[in-house]
Design a protein that fits this description.
This protein is α+β, with helices and mostly antiparallel strands. The protein has a single domain, classed as 2-Layer Sandwich (Alpha-Beta Plaits). It is built from four helices and eight strands. The strands form two sheets. Strands 1, 2, 3, 4, 5 and 8 form a six-stranded antiparallel beta sheet that branches. A two-stranded antiparallel sheet has the order 6-7. Strand 6 and strand 7 form a beta hairpin. Helix 3 packs antiparallel against helix 4. It starts with a strand and ends with a strand.
Length: 160
């Protein structure tokens, strides 16, 4: 069994319902949710003239390989109505693989660990709740350490 850490989020429509649907579809696709963080709200990162995002970190066990898991998650996004348009634009759902086991993967369509996690408080805060001592295999720092060192100024609010 492989362990993946995901960040799910969105800022369009009924955000709570979208995250619930994403969790259900992840489970239906063969992912067993082991841990889930609280929900966190933050202003949009990168393109600020849009609604706030709701995010949640998940620890998910899967039998799939990382490349197959990525395709599965992209299919879930598409089924939920995700259309890729402008970079950092609004979206109904976004599912990112933050970590996959202790793997370091550099492929054209897949980079693990997520290349920007150390710079994004909205990803680190929920992940720190469920995996504070997880070690970033490239930076060799725990999630707790990365969060403490993160210079991202966006406020991340735990809402439940």
């Amino acid at each position: 069994m492989n362990i993946s850490y995901l960040l799910i989020g969105g800022n369009e429509g009924d955000r709570l319902a979208q995250l619930a649907t994403a969790r259900d579809l992840i489970t239906a696709a063969g992912g067993r949710i082991v841990l889930s963080s609280s929900l966190y709200e933050t202003a949009a990162w990168g393109k600020t003239d849009q609604a706030d995002f709701l995010n949640q970190a998940l620890e998910v066990a899967t039998k799939q390989t990382a490349p197959a898991w990525l395709l599965t998650l992209l299919d879930i996004e598409e089924k939920m109505g995700r259309r890729r348009g402008e970079k950092y634009g609004p979206r109904i759902i976004d599912i990112d693989i933050l970590f996959f086991n202790n793997s370091i993967i550099r492929q054209p369509q897949l980079t693990i660990p997520h290349p920007e996690i150390q710079n994004r408080r909205f990803a680190l805060a929920p992940l720190e709740e469920i995996a504070p001592l997880l070690i970033h295999p490239v930076l060799e720092r725990t999630i707790r350490e990365l969060l403490a060192e993160c210079t991202d100024p966006l406020t991340v609010k735990r809402i439940r």
